Amino acid sequence: MSPDFPMPHGYVWQYEWIRWIQTIHAPWLERVLHYLTILGTERFYVIVLPVIFWGISKQLGLRLAYVFLTSMFVNGWMKDALRVVRPMGIPGIQSSHTATATGYAMPSGHAQGSITFWGLVARWVGKAWFWILALLLAFGIGASRVYFGLHWPLDVMIGWLIGLVFVFVGWGLGRWWSYRQFAFNVRMTFAVGIPLVMFIIHTGTASAQYASLLLGIGVGAVMEERWLGLELSETWWKRVCAVVIGMAGLIALQWFIKWPADVLVWIIVRDVLIGLWATFGAPYVFLRSGLYQKSEASQ
């Protein structure tokens, strides 16, 4: 299965891997890989992250958002810096699900994002069985990108490695931050400063989206802690109602701030507002509606 045309030496074995894995044809396998690749898309994380913040754990949701969005920002920066072309269109390689493949190839965003997200959740759960599940999910999501001819194997491997670094470093920094009671102005400075540094470092559209979301999420979280101090209810139906209301607001923001979607300034405004809604606007509605209440420490 070696290429019958010139290729850089470091890509011959990767070409052979893709050709070999694409010889495996099974309808059930292709369906599983299809769903796995969907699990690695940005839309999945945009839905799941606020659900965790509103309905499971504010601390986990905020930590996930910061580490995951920073990880994906670095991913986009590295892609534009390395400029590795995807295997799509190369003779002998069949590519599908191409709508989920934008920009350059290395490192794989699906691989890096999946190991970052599921690895952090596994750290929070703290159970061996969940670590196994998290690693299997990350492996499957990364493997699906090779199977569908969207990434070179090395793209996926490097994405996994970078994601693991973010899991352990990000979790450690999150714990360090949580155990220190910084003043309001210090926390707000970090909430604004980190995204601004991102805007300066890299000005790509995807990077601007990550920085904008982080700006809204961070500023909203600092304000929520200062003025709301929300405590999630122990009643399951109240948590479900909160998630439904929160998602309705999220969809409304995406719908009403949709035109002109191709203008970067509108994308930034929309994503900042989405972040603010997730960590401040929605919690305010939850508090006013009686779904949640202030924690004793905030009263």
Automatic annotation (TrEMBL):
Pfam families: PAP2. Residues 60-171 form the Phosphatidic acid phosphatase type 2/haloperoxidase domain. Signal peptide: none annotated. InterPro entries: PAP2/HPO, PAP2/HPO_sf. It comes from the Bacteria. It comes from Alicyclobacillus ferrooxydans. This is Phosphatidic acid phosphatase type 2/haloperoxidase domain-containing protein. The keyword Transmembrane helix applies. The keyword rRNA-binding does not apply.
